[in-house]
Amino acid sequence: MKQHSFAQGSPEWHAHRATHFNASDAPAMMGCSPYKTRNQLLHEIHTGVTPTVDAATQRRFDDGHRFEALARPLAEEIIGEDLYPVTGSVGKLSASFDGLPIAEDVPFEHKSLNDELRAAMPLPGLNEGVTLPLQYRIQMEQQCMVCGADRVLFMASKWNGDELVEERHCWYESSQHLADDIAAGWDQFEHDLPAYVPAEPVADVVGRTPETLPALRIEVTGMVTASNLVQYREHALAVFAGINRDLKTDQDFANADKTVKWCGEVESRLAAAKQHALSQTESIDVLFKTIDDITAEARATRLELDKLVKARKEARRGEIVAGGVKALADHIAALTTRLGKPYMPAVPADFGGAIKGLRTFDSMQNAVDTALANAKITASAAADRIQANLTTLREKAAEHAFLFPDTAQIVQKAPDDLATLVTARIAEHEEKERVRKEAERERIRNEERQRLEREQEAERQRAAQEQAAAAVPAAAPAQPHVAVAAPAATPAPAPTVIPMPARTAAAPTSKPTLSLGQIKERITPLQITAEGMATLGFTGVKDRGSVLFHEAEYPHVLAAIVAHVQAIQAKQAA
Q1: Residue 212 half-sphere exposure, CB side, CA atoms within 13 Å?
Q2: What's the CA gap between 433 and 384, in Å, rounded?
Q3: Domain segments of the chain: what residues?
Q4: Contact indicator for 52, 72 with CB cutoff of 8 Å
């Protein structure tokens, strides 16, 4: 924080305030000050002209400064350090501290005690159940933003001379959420400031009637002896025709309200003049007809203007509300253009509720402008959040865009949450890919192994068939078995013959239960496949991926294997 040595209230202090966003103005900027509207603050900063302080207000300011000085020693006892009034700033933000220790870590803020603060702080020195009005919390939060403190000692006191009458105090704890709102509020205020157009200064709204009609003079003695009725009629009709019916400003509506009453008075005066004439004569058709015409015109004008006032008031309220709706829509459209796609969420803004109960159009316009500023702040914050999330997606998920078909929804998340989501989705996808690729490699290895096994088995079967064919000549099957003697020099050993039971067909009703795996276990270390079994004449039955055989076939399987091996042995011996 940068400290400034000038005293509060000095010309240098005022010059500093004119170029900074001050903590005491923050409630007005946020639209919650009971003393100044946001539009009034815009006008003051834009023009540099501040309202003249009247004598009563100045006395109130002087009492506040005096109470503050008297209460500072009480605050020093609570904080345990000496306090000094000082003005500090960080960037464009500024704050005037009623008291600040050398370490700048515990600010002191003082207000004159009133009923509102008594209700907020029912017991001195207790924080439990204390909720200070928002305007004070905003001011102290900006003080924390300027000096970096975590809390502020808030005190309100009342004095009789130098004697303490009553004192209440509590601790205000800093809120990051409120600090963010204040920062966004000043950003929007700074954005609105160059576009602000000061309204024409107007005095207090007081209705005016059209020019006064001349006095109507009628004298009759059985007949009209003297009258300016013709001239009066022409003048009256011209005045009625010139009454403003295009109502826009508070002045227009005040004039119209006043004119409605005036027309009623004209009707009453004409009725009185007519009655006066009737008291002088029984019937003067021309006189009465003229008076009736003027009366009817005054009445018609009164009724028309009265209806117009009511209709235009309602229409003007609608125009103010519609202006806020359009301005917010334009702002959101600009943010959408900035983002490149329609990611912006709906931004609620109750402009109709903002003007509820307000009587003047100036107060309605200020209420709508304040609500608009708050809605713009919300929209801009949403756009900044979406922009940050889109940047995260571009940086971390550029190669995994297909994982985020719900981009329009997830960019609404808090940036930290979205970053976590992106990391989790990519990690999950990569794990699935790793598992898929490993499964694919395993499938390829299995297929290759099975292919090699099939080729090897086919080669073994081919070799066995060749050996069997070589061991048994083609003409031999019809002849009785004749042993062939080997050459005397190298006698071949006679093959060992193991008698096996004769093969009989399995009962057709039995269910095969002997699996190929079980056969492999029984003949280990020999190995055999389903194709090999088929070569030996045993096809088996396929059941859910397995090949099953009848248990009764097993001895015959062994016999076939032995015969096959003997055929190979015989071929080798030959």
Answers
A1: 4
A2: 34
A3: 2-192, 203-386
A4: no
Residue 438 has a CB neighbour count (10 Å cut-off) of: 10
User: pLDDT for 506-552, tens place per residue?
Assistant: 445 678 888 878 888 888 888 888 888 888 888 888 877 778 888 88
Quickly count helices (H) and strands (E) in the chain.
17, 12
Q: What is the model's pTM?
A: 0.53
Other C-beta atoms closer than 10 Å to the C-beta of 102 total: 9
Please state, in angstroms and rounded to a whole number, the distance separating the CA atoms of residues 148 and 456. Answer: 82
Question: Is beta strand 108-112 parallel, antiparallel or unpaired with respect to 151-160?
Answer: parallel
Could you tell me the two tokens for 452?
A: 């090699």
207: confidence class by pLDDT, cuts 50, 70, 90: low
Q: Are 224 and 266 in contact (CB under 8 A)?
A: no
What is the DSSP secondary structure assignment for residue 413, as one 8-state letter? S
**CB atoms inside a 10 Å sphere around CB 534:** 13
What CA–CA distance (Å, rounded) separates 145 from 162? 33
Three-class HEC string of 301-365: HHHHHHHHHHHHHHHHHHHHHHHHHHHHHHHHHHHHHHHCCCCCCCCCCCHHHHCCCCCCHHHHH
Among the listed residues 433, 438, 383, 435, the one whose alpha carbon sits nearest the alpha carbon of residue 403: 433
Q: What is the DSSP string of 157-211?
A: EEEETTEEEEEEEEEEEP-HHHHHHHHHHHHHHHHHTTT--PPPP-------PSP
- For residue 174, give both structure tokens: 């800093």
Architecture of the domain defined by 2-192: Alpha-Beta Complex (3.90)
